[in-house]
Structures are given as C-alpha cells and as structure tokens.
Amino acid sequence: MSVGMAAPRAPYACDPDRSRGRLVTEPPSRTRSPFRRDCDRVIHSTAFRRLKYKTQVFVFHEGDHYRTRLTHSLEVAQIARALARQLGLDEDLTETLALAHDLGHPPFGHAGERALAACLKEFGGFDHNAQTLRVVASLEHRYPEFDGLNLTWESLEGIVKHNGPLTDRSGAPVGRYREHGVPVGIAEYIKTYDLELWSFASLEAQVAAIADDIAYDAHDIDDGLRAGLFHLDDLKVMPLTAEIIAETAAHYPDLEDVRRGAELVRELISHLIGAVFAETGKKLAAVKPQSAQDVRRQSQSLVAFPAEVAEEEAAIKTFLYQHMYRHERVMRVMGEAEQILFDLFAKYLKSPSELPPEWLLGSEADNEGDRARRIGNFIAGMTDRFALTEHQRLFDSTPDLR
Predict the structure, then answer these.
(1) Strand, coil or helix: what is 254?
(2) Assigned domain for 244 exists
(3) Residue 180 CA to its chain's centroid (Å)
(4) What is the average pLDDT score of the chain?
(5) Residue 325 pLDDT level (bands cut at 50, 70, 90)
(6) Is 365 helix (H, G, I), strand (E, B) or coil?
C-alpha cells in the first residue's frame, strides 16, 4: 500500500464498538461513535477555545502569523489523521488525542509550566499532562450529570500514556517519573478509574504523540524563520534539511526565501510521515498484534522513526533549542512571562478574594494545599491575554512581553 492511501481497519486498531466505556454511563449516540463523540466534546470545550490565545513559542500579540497552541493542535491532528488513515487506525480517537494533548498547558508555553511547577512544588508540583487530565475529568463544567467531559477509557488512557507507561507492573514510577513520582493529578484519578499506567497506550495515542514531534519540528522552523531568529541557509548544518534545501534550489533556482522556507516545511513533514509509516509497518509485521490489547502488552512503542531518521529528528530539536528556544529575545520574554505568573500566584494565595467568585466556592474549607492547587488550576486555564490583563489589574507595572 502506498503512503497516502487509506488502509482498511486493522485488527490492532481501537474499535469504538468495543470501548471500555465511560466513568459515568451514558446512552449511546444515535449518530456518532463513542470516539467521535469524544472528539466533538474536546472541540466544543472551553479549554480548547482558550488555546487560541496560549503561547506556542511566541506570545500571542507578537504577530498573527505565529503558531498558537490552537493552531499547533490542529496541525498535529492533521498529521496524526494522515498516519492513522495509512495504518488502518481509528481516526476519530486519533484526532481526539491530537486535539486534546495540549489542553493542560498554562499561558506562556513552557515558561508558564516552569513557573507553576515552582509555585506548586510543595503541593504536588505541576505537570501539563496531569493538568490535561484534570481539564477533561473535572474542570470543564458543561454537562448536568458530571464534571469534565466524561471521555471514554481509551481517550483518557491516550491522554495520560501517549508517551509511554508511567509505572511498571508493581506501580513503581518509570522513565521521567522515576525521580518525582507519578503526577498527583494522575495518581489521584486512577484510584477512581484505573488507566493501567504500567502498559503502553493504543497505536492511536502513539500516533498522536509522534505527530506532535513532527509538527513541532516543522512548524517551529517555519516560525523561527518568520521571526528572523535564524536564516534558511543556517539549516544547512543538518544533512536532512540541507538535502531538502538543495533539492528545492535545483527545481526552483530563483525562488524567494519565503517560498523556499514553506517548501522545506512541506517536504520535511512528508519525509517524517513517510519514515514513521515505514518503520511502524516493520514493527507491526514483526510482532503481529491482533488487537489493541496486544499493542498495550508490548515492551516498546510500535510507532517510531527509523534509527537514522530519529537521529535527524533529534538534530532538528537540538538546532531549534540552540537557535530558537534559547534565543536571547525569546529567553527575555519568557523570563518576564514567568515572573507574571509568580506574581499572580503569590497575590491570589495572599488574597484569595481576588479570584473570580466561581473559584471561591467551598474555599473556606480549603487547607493551604487545596487553596494552592485551586489557584494553580485557575492560572493554568488562563490565556496569555487574560494573564496580562489580570496582572495589570493587580499590579502597578506589567511587562510588555515584546
């Protein structure tokens, strides 16, 4: 089967008719599968709309042409659907996970996450993956019979485990969770609804995760070029991007830089998608999973780059880290953004009455930890714009973040 053609549903795909269901039982939809219903709930959620004004790399008011968390999520979903279609997976579940993966990110991108992690260090810390689970499990208040979105087990599993298991069979944290443990929001939730943290997630979740990497690589190059943080020819230090740039020059010798950059991004996405499809096909052929549960029992992710492409992809991330994420201009703005969240957290902790009334309900019974977590949830849900507005309301001076 050639890349781009839709495959028939594979035996290892998640089957919506065999979903493990929802924490709160609901009548089935007459017109939508459970996974399509999940996707629609994510799209209509308040948290999803807020992504429009949340930073990807550049603060929202730096220009309309840069990615936000919303446009990034849409681009991840497009890449993920393309891979899911080729592999015979459930596209609705894949899209759900791609669109939901950043719902828990606070304002100001990774700077906001660092700030909240520091503020909440004594109260369980902050992890954007755990925060996404909080959003879909409790913080959305749209339905009369439950808090959250009441997503299917498969969607919740994919949100929590798309980057792999969090624990081993005994419950001991593994990987990046070994040092600090499973994030408190996830650890608390699985007491109510076991998401089997010891296993890998579905192929749909694995596809959404690698689509996130592909989108980051390609579109951060695009935004970095547009911002003037580096030049197209600077990317020739990497063999993969150098080859694409050379091929573009051979076909279009007089092309202006804007179109050269766009061609690089397109070809890079196509190259990475094709590489994932080929490598995943090899892994599936080797282990021959006959169900989604067979996928979960594997000792490694089945959706992956080939080794040589993984090296190329890692080189792109290193380049972006050095030339974009650690660029003096970006670091200055993000440092100021972190301070804004530090200021807000301290102010709300000292003067809870400054919180909106709906965030004060029941707060009289809060201990310090409950109050800190409530404030953390409130700040995590802010857009960049609202965080700036709140800081201007509460303080005499607010950085411009430009």
Answers:
(1) coil
(2) yes
(3) 21
(4) 93
(5) confident
(6) helix
Residue 319 resides in a domain: yes
Q: What is the DSSP letter of 173?
A: B
Amino acid, res. 158: G
| Cα–Cα dist 3/13, whole Å | 18
Give 133-136's long-range contacts (Cβ < 8 A, gap of 24+). Answer: 133/104, 133/159, 133/160, 133/185, 133/186, 133/189, 134/104, 134/185, 134/377, 135/45, 135/47, 135/103, 135/104, 135/381, 136/42, 136/45, 136/100, 136/103
221 pLDDT above the threshold of 60: yes
Instruction: Give CB contacts under 8 A, 24+ apart, made by 19-25.
Output: 19/152, 19/153, 19/154, 20/152, 20/153, 20/154, 21/152, 21/153, 22/150, 22/151, 22/152, 22/153, 23/137, 23/146, 23/150, 23/192, 23/193, 24/145, 24/146, 24/150
pLDDT band at 400 (very low <50, low <70, confident <90, very high): confident
CA distances from 377 to 47, 124, 155, 163, 384 (A): 12, 13, 21, 23, 15
Cα 44 to its chain centre, rounded Å, is 17
In a domain, 316, yes or no: yes
pLDDT digits (tens, 9 = 90+) for 111-139: 999 999 999 999 999 999 999 999 999 99
pLDDT band at 4 (very low <50, low <70, confident <90, very high): low
- The phi and psi torsions of 22 (rounded to 5 degrees) equal -120, 155
Enumerate the β-bridge partners of residue 22.
Answer: 152
Provide the sign of the torsion angle of the four alpha carbons 390, 393, 394, 397, taken in this order: positive
> What's the token pair of residue 16?
């919506």
Please give the pLDDT value at position 60. Answer: 47
Model confidence at 6: pLDDT above 70:
no
- pLDDT of amino acid 286: 97
| 285 neighbors 307 (Cβ within 8 angstroms) | no
Tell me how many helices (H) and strands (E) the chain has: 16, 0
Task: Let me know how long the chain is.
Answer: 402
Backbone angles phi, psi at 322, to 5 degrees: -75, -40
- Is the Cα dihedral 312, 314, 318, 319 positive or negative? positive
Return the H-helix or E-strand segment holding 293. Answer: helix 292-296
Q: Which helix (H) or strand (E) holds 226?
A: helix 203-227
Range of the domain at 230: 209-280+304-324
Structural domain includes residue 213: yes
Count of structural domains, the chain: 1
C-alpha–C-alpha distance, residues 6 and 21, integer Å: 27
